[in-house]
């Protein structure tokens, strides 16, 4: 039995709340059970130096956790003077995931920055950030298109992410912290709406896992991503 009582192939209760920011061009609060990540998209009329005069844009991300997002208060990384390796790894993952489904030549020399702030953490913050950031990015691009900044939406596909793991010998979908901290193995899957692979991160935490077990995790991930993409579509539809 999972600590939450969910079936092995069941997601947590998921919400993708849109337009939660008055000022950002695109916004989405991604709620995966007790995990909450605020994703805000900002459009900047500039690009990094390596893209100047290229006619291409850029999508990037920043990630952080509020001090009381977890059970005990953690110091702000700004007060320490540097970001942790975990933070850098996650924000690069978010940026890579979004760029995989965007035509960077389709919105001119502009940069879209996704700020992903973890309000509350109970496992799966990076997967919630990717899933919510896509919605925020889509809303921001739709806003730009309405303003006449581009002739068509430069989005090639949806992208979403979910965690899977082996908990007490059973492959399960969408790990919360109680499962993630005690899993035999866990993995994060980033897939497109059409099922293509963007990135897979998998680790044996207690003991190695087999090809067959990996196949079971991948199957769970595909099911979960399908459900997340449906929620993304509904959120985008509501945004107009």
From TrEMBL:
<dbReference type="InterPro" id="IPR036345">
    <property type="entry name" value="ExoRNase_PH_dom2_sf"/>
</dbReference>
<keyword id="KW-0694">RNA-binding</keyword>
<dbReference type="InterPro" id="IPR020568">
    <property type="entry name" value="Ribosomal_Su5_D2-typ_SF"/>
</dbReference>
<dbReference type="InterPro" id="IPR015847">
    <property type="entry name" value="ExoRNase_PH_dom2"/>
</dbReference>
<keyword id="KW-0820">tRNA-binding</keyword>
<comment type="subunit">
    <text>Homohexameric ring arranged as a trimer of dimers.</text>
</comment>
<dbReference type="InterPro" id="IPR002381">
    <property type="entry name" value="RNase_PH_bac-type"/>
</dbReference>
<feature type="binding site">
    <location>
        <begin position="124"/>
        <end position="126"/>
    </location>
    <ligand>
        <name>phosphate</name>
    </ligand>
</feature>
<feature type="domain" description="Exoribonuclease phosphorolytic">
    <location>
        <begin position="159"/>
        <end position="223"/>
    </location>
</feature>
<dbReference type="Pfam" id="PF01138">
    <property type="entry name" value="RNase_PH"/>
</dbReference>
<dbReference type="GO" id="GO:0008033">
    <property type="term" value="P:tRNA processing"/>
</dbReference>
<dbReference type="InterPro" id="IPR001247">
    <property type="entry name" value="ExoRNase_PH_dom1"/>
</dbReference>
<keyword id="KW-0808">Transferase</keyword>
<dbReference type="GO" id="GO:0016075">
    <property type="term" value="P:rRNA catabolic process"/>
</dbReference>
<comment type="function">
    <text>Phosphorolytic 3'-5' exoribonuclease that plays an important role in tRNA 3'-end maturation. Removes nucleotide residues following the 3'-CCA terminus of tRNAs; can also add nucleotides to the ends of RNA molecules by using nucleoside diphosphates as substrates, but this may not be physiologically important. Probably plays a role in initiation of 16S rRNA degradation (leading to ribosome degradation) during starvation.</text>
</comment>
<protein>
    <recommendedName>
        <fullName>Ribonuclease PH</fullName>
        <ecNumber>2.7.7.56</ecNumber>
    </recommendedName>
</protein>
<dbReference type="GO" id="GO:0009022">
    <property type="term" value="F:tRNA nucleotidyltransferase activity"/>
</dbReference>
<dbReference type="Pfam" id="PF03725">
    <property type="entry name" value="RNase_PH_C"/>
</dbReference>
<keyword id="KW-0819">tRNA processing</keyword>
<dbReference type="InterPro" id="IPR027408">
    <property type="entry name" value="PNPase/RNase_PH_dom_sf"/>
</dbReference>
<feature type="binding site">
    <location>
        <position position="86"/>
    </location>
    <ligand>
        <name>phosphate</name>
    </ligand>
</feature>
<dbReference type="InterPro" id="IPR050080">
    <property type="entry name" value="RNase_PH"/>
</dbReference>
<feature type="domain" description="Exoribonuclease phosphorolytic">
    <location>
        <begin position="11"/>
        <end position="140"/>
    </location>
</feature>
<dbReference type="GO" id="GO:0000049">
    <property type="term" value="F:tRNA binding"/>
</dbReference>
<dbReference type="GO" id="GO:0031125">
    <property type="term" value="P:rRNA 3'-end processing"/>
</dbReference>
<keyword id="KW-0548">Nucleotidyltransferase</keyword>
<dbReference type="InterPro" id="IPR018336">
    <property type="entry name" value="RNase_PH_CS"/>
</dbReference>
<comment type="similarity">
    <text>Belongs to the RNase PH family.</text>
</comment>
<dbReference type="GO" id="GO:0000175">
    <property type="term" value="F:3'-5'-RNA exonuclease activity"/>
</dbReference>
<keyword id="KW-0698">rRNA processing</keyword>
């Amino acid at each position: 039995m999972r600590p939450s009582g969910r079936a092995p192939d069941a997601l947590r209760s998921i919400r993708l709340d849109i337009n939660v920011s008055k000022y950002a061009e695109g916004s989405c609060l991604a709620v995966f059970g007790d995990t909450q990540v605020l994703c805000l998209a900002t459009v900047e009329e500039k690009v990094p130096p390596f893209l100047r005069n290229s006619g291409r844009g850029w999508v990037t991300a920043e990630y952080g956790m509020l001090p009381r997002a977890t059970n005990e208060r953690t110091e702000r990384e700004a007060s320490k003077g540097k970001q942790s390796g975990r933070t850098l790894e996650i924000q690069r993952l978010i940026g890579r995931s979004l760029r995989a489904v965007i035509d960077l030549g389709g919105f001119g020399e502009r940069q879209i920055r996704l700020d992903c702030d973890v309000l509350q953490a109970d496992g799966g913050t990076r997967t919630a950030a990717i899933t919510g950031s896509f919605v925020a990015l889509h809303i921001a691009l739709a806003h730009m298109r309405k303003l006449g900044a581009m002739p068509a939406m430069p989005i090639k596909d949806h992208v979403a992410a979910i965690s899977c793991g082996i908990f007490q010998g059973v492959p399960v979908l969408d790990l919360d912290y109680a499962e993630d901290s005690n899993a035999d193995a866990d993995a994060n899957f980033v897939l497109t709406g059409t099922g293509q692979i963007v990135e897979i991160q998998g680790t044996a935490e207690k003991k190695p896992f087999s090809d067959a077990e990996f196949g079971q995790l991948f199957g769970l991930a595909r099911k979960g991503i399908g459900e997340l993409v449906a929620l993304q579509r509904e959120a985008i539809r509501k945004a107009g």
